[in-house]
Design brief:
about 350 residues; mainly beta; Lipocalin; 12-stranded antiparallel β-barrel; 4 helices; globular; disordered N terminus
């Protein structure tokens, strides 16, 4: 599952640039496909929030296609991606003026508070790691966006959480966690995430100082996580990008949504952002434990929320976003409220 799960998006990633080159850069950057592909790398770590517990570390690589004519025949995405899209047409929105496609590769690591204990800590969250790949579809109509993502992968030792955390702690000089023998068992996981967004802007695409607000609502369904959510993001700064948010944790945030203004992709600028998201959680495998077998679990709280704030800087084809997030307690008996930091670097090719 681990190797095969990564194979499909890896092949798509390798083919993305190759197919665009084969059909000519001009063809893939004119008209509706006028923007080049984008690569985002995001790293989350609770050490940036002064903690070493809970959502301890995460990394995600995101590949963003140009604006596409469609998902099944556009020559600017690989043949394999077009073939996959023909079998996932139920996830693809229709009758929108702009659309694009993303592929994601991610790992998330979750640990209890006391790293010194090697026994099962029954009153704290389980050790868990998730290794995921995904395909997503964004569709835009004016200041409205719909995004749908399918993620699948594995939770358990095959997700390589212990190995990844040990490597990071060796680099940072931190103590290693000793309880990974108690982590959740291997289990294939999936989820479908859908969100709808609406953008209110003061500048309507004009350059200079301005603000905007992006409201969102949606949910997730699957044995990885099932929840409903809603929230908003506020941004203020110079030369705001024509997209749907700068917070890296949103499904269509940080440089992944289709844009109506190609010049904004390379216009230097900077802005601050403040974001909030609330969730009603029915299932979270990292708290509820394995779905199909007995395992360590805790009594999660159904109503949770997080607030984030940060800064984003754009320069030519590069974009950098730094953020910090504060969350409410996720389960009964949790000692501290979660805090972690995140940075994302993006480049258009």
């Amino acid at each position: 599952m681990n190797r095969l799960g990564w194979l499909l998006p890896a092949v798509i990633a390798c083919g993305w640039a190759g197919d665009a080159h084969a059909h000519g850069r001009e063809e893939c950057t004119n008209g509706r496909t006028r923007l080049p592909p984008i690569v985002n790398l995001r790293v989350d770590n609770d050490l940036l929030g002064g903690q070493d517990q809970g959502y301890s570390n995460g990394v995600q690589l995101t590949l963003v296609s140009p604006n596409l004519r469609d998902y099944t025949d556009d020559p600017c995405i690989p043949r394999l991606a077009r073939w996959v899209n023909r079998h996932l047409n139920a996830l693809q929105p229709e009758t929108f003026e702009q659309q694009n496609m993303i592929a994601t590769f991610s790992q998330g690591i979750f640990t209890p508070t006391d790293f010194t204990r090697s026994d099962l800590i029954e009153d704290d969250r389980p050790y868990a790691a998730a290794l995921l790949v995904g395909l997503g579809y964004n569709a835009r109509e004016g200041d409205r966006l719909r995004t749908t993502q399918l993620q699948f992968g594995i939770v358990g030792p095959a997700a390589l959480g212990k190995e990844a955390q040990d490597a990071v702690h060796q680099i940072t000089g931190s103590e290693k966690f000793r309880g990974w023998d108690n982590q959740l068992e291997n289990e294939p996981v999936f989820r479908i995430v859908h969100e709808r967004m609406l953008r209110f802007s003061s500048s309507d695409g004009a350059r200079g100082w301005g603000w905007d607000t992006i409201a969102h609502y949606g949910g997730s369904f699957g044995n990885l996580a099932t929840y409903a959510n809603a929230g908003a993001e506020f941004r203020f700064g110079k030369n705001l990008p024509d997209d749907f948010g700068s917070t890296p944790l949103r499904p269509a945030g940080e440089n992944t949504a289709p844009t109506r203004q190609p010049q904004s992709q390379y216009t230097p600028g900077a802005h601050l952002f403040l974001t909030m998201d609330t969730r009603w959680v029915l299932w979270d495998i990292t708290l509820d434990g394995n779905t199909f077998r007995d395992s360590h679990s805790v009594d999660k709280r159904h109503a949770v929320a997080n607030v984030g704030y940060g800064v984003a800087v754009m320069l030519n084809r590069w974009k950098l976003a730094l953020a910090r997030y504060h969350g409410t307690r996720e389960f009964d008996g949790q000692r501290e409220t979660p805090v972690f930091g995140s940075f994302t670097i993006s480049r258009a090719f």
